[in-house]
Amino acid sequence: MAQAAFRSFNLAFIQLGKIGVDKAENLKHACDMIRTAASGQGQNKKPDLIVLPEFFTTPLGDAPLIPTHAEDIGFTPGEPYDITNSKSDSVKMLSDVAKETGTWLIGGSLPERDAVKEGKFYNTCTVYNPKGELVARHRKMHLFDIDIPGKITAKESDTIASGDALTMFDTEFARIGVGICYDIRFPELAMIAARRGCQVLIYPSAFSMTTGELHWELLQRLRAVDNQVFMGMCSCARDAKAKFKAWGHSMVVDPMGKVLAEAGEDEEIVYVRIETEELDRARQGIPVSGQRRFDVYGNIALFPD
Ligand SMILES: NC(=O)CCC(=O)C(=O)O
User: Which domains does the chain have, with CATH numbers?
Assistant: First the structure.
């Protein structure tokens, strides 16, 4: 893979609120918020890249809504895609607003209907360039199936099928790796993306209230430091009435593990300047990438569980 460009840029995370049962209203609200974020709100922060959270069209934890809210995206990575004939309202909105605002856009995620794998759907993120072209798609690879007795039981795999590909895309300012929420718990994904030249990793997300306090910041700082990359997770806002209450606290961490920006719990737009020097400083000062011992590790995928 060719060396990726890297220059300083502005990033905006939309910690979106008001995600209700009406998909059209959710789309309209997301579109309004993207326009607001793109304006930079008069603070000389006009973003090059805007990010939405996980499941921005459909309330998380409301599984019966998934079949009605799911959309046919019909995108195959690497193949041309005709947005004007897309069957997805969300794809059309995201493409239009990326073009209108002239920004890169990581369009959170939404339930995707495909040739429906075993009657399930995908939890899918789509990415747009400033011309409004759909350039990448990530299907959540690791599904949120957990059981912490008395606290939380979740089985995302009841309705969602797992994706089977890593996702990264090139902009004029960085190579960016994409995952979705629970994907953060699997260091291999971030490690491979970093080794393939990503300087920035961004995961649309919505952590649980049980795990958020201990793990949300910790996991992002770990992935950032392990891989010497910028790491960010963009969450939904917390909604006290929702079935799944999101932790919020959308965050961006630098390659030394320093938290550059953090939202609260409510709807909010977080602006961050990503400075190339921070990555160079971390990698030059602590040169772990040249000190790895692959001669000793061998193929870790072959180790027994
Ligand atoms: N939406 C999710 O994947 C939730 C992940 C989460 O809360 C975690 O602890 O991991």
Answer: 9-302 (3.60.110.10)
